[in-house]
Design a protein that fits this description.
This protein is α/β, with parallel strands linked by helices. The chain has one domain: Metallo-dependent phosphatases (Purple Acid Phosphatase, chain A, domain 2). Helices cover 21% and strands 27% of the residues. It has a six-stranded mixed sheet, with helices on one face. The chain has a five-stranded mixed sheet with strand order 4-3-2-1-13, with helices on one face. Strands 7-8 form a two-stranded parallel ribbon. The longest helix is centred in the middle third of the chain and has 17 residues. It starts with a strand and ends with a strand.
């Protein structure tokens, strides 16, 4: 399954110079947050494939104006062509704004999803805005990852974990890393990945 990942930065290459051939064969678009609703609606219109998203810490407008033509995966599991995608948007709480959570609040969100996760026999993709703690996150509170995401990876071993929030220009870091059985990808900007399940 070919997936287009997007997060954090509206790419002029896509928005201003869209080339349909570049995205030929894309089966699904997944947004890891902090992108304008208009950008996501543009993508779903131009690529003609489903777009699932979770909100980032800068997406408070989504509360009243969500992206048209797109589907929120926040706090739920969505199945696409047999692939189970668990979405958890937001970042660590650093200024008490919408889509910011303490570690305890994120643990409660996940706890509410446990029955849903069991019903689906786990999930294949973890889709978030923030990274997991010590797995591609930052040192400051605003960019620190969630320890509860590490627990999810340890418990359910999803094939993939896609996140944003940690901009690639913050420091030298790989786009992709491996944690046990899970391939972790930072979706900053955009990235096309051929996923095998």
């Amino acid at each position: 399954m070919k997936i287009l990942l997007v997060a954090d930065k509206e790419e002029p290459y896509i928005w201003d110079y869209f080339d349909r051939e570049r995205f030929k064969g894309v089966d699904l678009v997944l947004s890891c947050g902090d992108l304008k609703a208009e950008y996501l609606s543009f993508l779903v219109t131009m690529i003609h494939t489903p777009l699932l998203y979770v909100p980032g810490n800068h997406n408070k407008k989504f509360i009243t104006q969500p992206p048209e033509g797109c589907v929120s995966a926040d706090d739920t599991i969505i199945t696409h062509k047999g692939i189970r995608i668990l979405g958890l948007g937001g970042s660590m709480n650093y200024s008490n704004q919408p889509y910011q959570y303490t570690e305890r609040q994120m643990e409660k969100r996940i706890s509410k999803l446990k029955r849903h996760i069991r019903k689906h026999n786990g999930f294949d993709i973890l889709l978030t805005h923030a990274p997991a703690f010590s797995l591609g996150d930052g040192d400051d509170i605003a960019h620190r990852g969630f320890k509860s995401f590490v627990d999810l990876l340890d418990t359910y071993s999803p094939k993939y974990f896609f996140h944003g929030h940690q901009h690639m220009n913050y420091r030298i870091q790989p786009r992709t890393m491996q944690y046990k059985d899970t391939t972790i990808v930072n979706a900053y900007g955009y990235h096309i990945i051929d996923c095998e399940f």
